[in-house]
Fold this protein.
Amino acid sequence: MIQDAAIIGNGPAGLSAALYLLRAGFSVTVIGQDNGALEKAGYIENYFGLDSPKTGHQLVEAGKAQVLRLGGKLLRDQVVGITWDRDFLVDTAGGRLAARAILLTTGTSRKMVPIRQLDRLEGRGVSYCAVCDAFFFRGKPVALLGDGEYALHELKELLPITGPVTVCTNGLAPSVEFPPEVTVRREPIRRLVGDDRLQAVEFSDGSILETEALFVALGTAKGSDLARKLGIRLEDNRIVVNEQMATPLPGVFAAGDCTGGIYQISIAVGEGARAALSAIRFLRENQMEESLCASPD
């Protein structure tokens, strides 16, 4: 069954957005693997309405309970991709969900991959989106950096288009089973080789893997990764939105840390509310158009 809204991320921005959409009468599924950065927060006092300090865990669990009480759905899963086919199709590690609107509230990654030259070669052979860039490496050997479900999803995008793909796990044990025709290199990566363009990956043992491209799919897909797949503009890895938290792509909204700004719970909650109000307007306008189209002349 199609949902009115799929919210990717169950932190304060996503849960706040869900409450507004549910109270407006729309069906909502919130998808998230964990409680994000808030889970690690100690006791919180600088937030309105708390009669005593609460841990980040207590606060986010209370928000989840509100969403469930209002009839929303919580899906504990990993989102690996989003496409559009009349409606938005959200691919997860466990299946697929269709929705009329998307809200990206995934927070932001504060962990950088310590691989020399990675940042400098972005856009010069280093890519973060297989759907976007696989075409440019048709029939050429490429590498994929990752070890889990997200990497497996990106691999499936690469295999029909590029030449042979080598999966590099950067010292980690794969958490999924990659196809047998794919070579998996588990050695830690020392650096990337290349001046104007990526030429090779050098491993810690000194061995070299010559490659035309390196597609990065470490961990789980971040909001910026999902935005790239939808063709949404980024600035410094932040999702660009207007004052209504809307992206240039109709039906896609973003809120919270993934849009940059001040990383505070109160800001994320407010932006989640604003994104939800914009999504509500979008959904109601679409309902009106569908109703007019269905009416007899």
Summary: The chain is about 25% helix and 25% strand. The CA atoms of residues 23 and 216 lie 39 Å apart.
